[in-house]
């Protein structure tokens, strides 16, 4: 049976990276189709007409959009290392935290970065991140997923590498070690997981990106 897997994406996107991590965790062979977001391909517009965003996974011709939907799809179709818990309640909790990260944490952190660490924006980012810090403390585990990474860890990819790159590029502090010891420890462990390490862009590329995009002239 044909099992053709393509991933439309751009390098350096934390959302695309979520899909890449899931593919690497499951050891799936795939073709990366590099998109130019300033000149989107006809395929991308056809596959994701609603958002016109990457990532889009195309499995045997069937397109799937939205990074978290893609990660769940990969987990369901390919056996091997599980990404979601089996237990219904634990699965619901994992989906809840992934949603918190997308709806609450990432927008707040992004605003703190875009504002160059403006006080009020940073305070709001801290408030959002505190929920994740507490969750790690309550779980008392290495990852949100326990001993191994799960959907929640993959959702938080941006916090593990991109935030540090933005801090370095702009000379700001959003995710401080003394305020968020658990998240900092999580971040170190996470980027050192083999499947994650193999999927991340070089940090210096992200630093350059943030300098160009948000740096003062
Ligand atoms: N909620 C989406 C977000 C994806 C997203 O924001 N992708 C960006 C690249 S990082 C994009 O394709 N932007 C193109 C555009 O907005 O025109 C997901 O999780 O997949
Ligand atoms: C946009 O992409 C198409 C191919 O998808 C290419 O033929 C065209 O030259 C590109 N335009 C620009 C301005 O880069």
UniProtKB/TrEMBL annotation:
List the Gene3D superfamilies.
1.20.1050.10, Glutaredoxin (3.40.30.10)
| Keyword ATP-binding found | no
| Protein origin, superkingdom | Eukaryota
Group of enzyme by EC: transferase
Could you tell me which PROSITE patterns the record lists for this protein? GST_CTER (PS50405), GST_NTER (PS50404)
Q: Which InterPro entries is this protein grouped with?
A: Glutathione-S-Trfase_C-like (IPR010987), Glutathione-S-Trfase_C_sf (IPR036282), Glutathione_S-Trfase (IPR040079), Glutathione_S-Trfase_N (IPR004045), GST_C (IPR004046), GST_C_Tau (IPR045074), Omega/Tau-like (IPR045073), Thioredoxin-like_sf (IPR036249)
Keywords (A to Z) from UniProt: Transferase
The answer on whether this UniProt entry bears the keyword Transport reads no
What Enzyme Commission number(s) appear in the record? 2.5.1.18
Q: Which Pfam families match?
A: GST_C, GST_N
What reaction gets catalysed by this protein? RX + glutathione = an S-substituted glutathione + a halide anion + H(+)
Q: Which residues form the GST C-terminal domain?
A: 87-214
Residues of the GST N-terminal domain: 3-82
Record GO cellular component, one term: cytoplasm
Instruction: Set out the biological process GO terms recorded for this chain's protein.
Output: glutathione metabolic process
As one GO molecular function, the record gives: glutathione transferase activity
Family membership noted in the UniProt record: Belongs to the GST superfamily. Tau family.
Q: What is this protein called?
A: glutathione transferase
Q: What is the lineage of its organism?
A: Eukaryota, Viridiplantae, Streptophyta, Embryophyta, Tracheophyta
